[in-house]
Amino acid sequence: MPEAKQKPTQLNVAELIQSAKATNADAFGKINDKRAATIANALFDELKKHLAEAEAGSINVKGLGRFTITQKTIMKDGEEKSRRRVIFRAGKK
Fold it and tell me: Angle, nearest 10°, between helix axes 33-53 and 13-23?
């Protein structure tokens, strides 16, 4: 019998910031939550932009990990269809 799929964990930027502040208070200094969220969203937007622009290959983000992008073309119902995958592998600490 196949295992039931586990529902993915849902996080939002505010929860990530609260968690990061709790474990790394010195890194945040006197930055308030709103400013920290603006910085985090700007970083995520840049990462999304780079991933969207990349054709195939990999993007390494030092201290975070590697994003590997693959592009496949398949024949389905007599038509060529393109499929794009992005796989993330966390870096080592």
Answer: 120
